[in-house]
Amino acid sequence: MNVVDEIVKNKKQLLKNKSADEIKQKAHDYASTNDKKFRFQEKLSDATSTKLICEYKPASPSQGDISTLSVEDVIEIYDTTPVDMISVLTEESYFKSNIENLKKAVKLTDKPVLRKDFIIDEYMIYEAVLCGASAVLLINGVCPDIEDYLNLCHELGIDAIVECHTLNDIEDVIEYDPKIIGINNRDFKDLSIDLETTKKLSEYIPNYMISESGVKTEHDARKLRNYGADGVLIGTSVLKSNEKPEIEHYINKIKHVLRKNTL
Ligand SMILES: O=P(O)(O)OC[C@@H](O)[C@@H](O)c1c[nH]c2ccccc12
């Protein structure tokens, strides 16, 4: 069993006593009064720069513990630096986060926030909406029904980032016209990284493309920008230091190369 199978198995267990029906109405009511809709897409539509998405990721299956900073500290940094959108892991067991961290993040910033998790039930989308998230991640091969879940996100006014890693993944989802595709440079099978995944797949992506995982240096970010990424998502490298000035410096450096007028 690979790590994603394990995560999904664990997730099913955690969701056992939850029913989407319990919070469905509440989420729809919330969405009907919320006028801030599709904020990820709105940001991506501004072509003056490639967007920088930074992630709150306390731990991961490949790295173990990543950061000891609190979610409050991290979001404060992301809120006050040129980060365009924020991603918050909510997976409990392998990434050591939780849904409360998403709630906290949304309260602490006006920037659009993505719920990053292994979404296997509509319950998790309603929950994200009720926390004030602007987007959710739908992973092809993990999400049980990309078409239905995309429609649900649309009804609720939030963006979905449909995550793909292979051309087959893209072929699976393309008929549902996803507005944002996330190319994961990390192979879930062995957790290896290859930024060329973005290069290989970019020509098959009709709308917005976010390149995810494995970005370390400005050189990497520039490469992905040149491959056509509309957004670059970084977790581990941005949180490598526990020192606020160092994190700020890293963010400024990366955003600098993502501005279109830099070579
Ligand atoms: O820490 P990195 O290599 O910068 O990667 C961030 C992000 O792309 C990664 O956390 C991620 C991409 N897709 C996911 C799906 C679930 C959990 C996590 C992820």
Automatic annotation (TrEMBL):
**Gene3D superfamilies reported for this sequence:** Aldolase class I
Where is each Indole-3-glycerol phosphate synthase domain found? 5-243
For this UniProt record, the keywords arranged alphabetically read as follows: Amino-acid biosynthesis, Aromatic amino acid biosynthesis, Decarboxylase, Lyase, Tryptophan biosynthesis
Q: What is its EC number?
A: 4.1.1.48
Q: Which GO terms describe its molecular function?
A: indole-3-glycerol-phosphate synthase activity; phosphoribosylanthranilate isomerase activity
Catalytic activity, per the record?
1-(2-carboxyphenylamino)-1-deoxy-D-ribulose 5-phosphate + H(+) = (1S,2R)-1-C-(indol-3-yl)glycerol 3-phosphate + CO2 + H2O
> Has UniProt tagged this entry with the keyword Lyase?
yes
Which pathway is recorded for this entry? Answer: Amino-acid biosynthesis; L-tryptophan biosynthesis; L-tryptophan from chorismate: step 4/5
Q: Which CDD domains does its entry note?
A: IGPS
Q: Which GO terms describe its biological process?
A: L-tryptophan biosynthetic process
User: What family classification does the UniProt entry report for this protein?
Assistant: Belongs to the TrpC family.
Protein name (Swiss-Prot/TrEMBL): Indole-3-glycerol phosphate synthase
The source organism is: Methanosphaera cuniculi
Please spell out the taxonomic lineage of the organism that makes this protein.
Answer: Archaea, Methanobacteriati, Methanobacteriota, Methanomada group, Methanobacteria
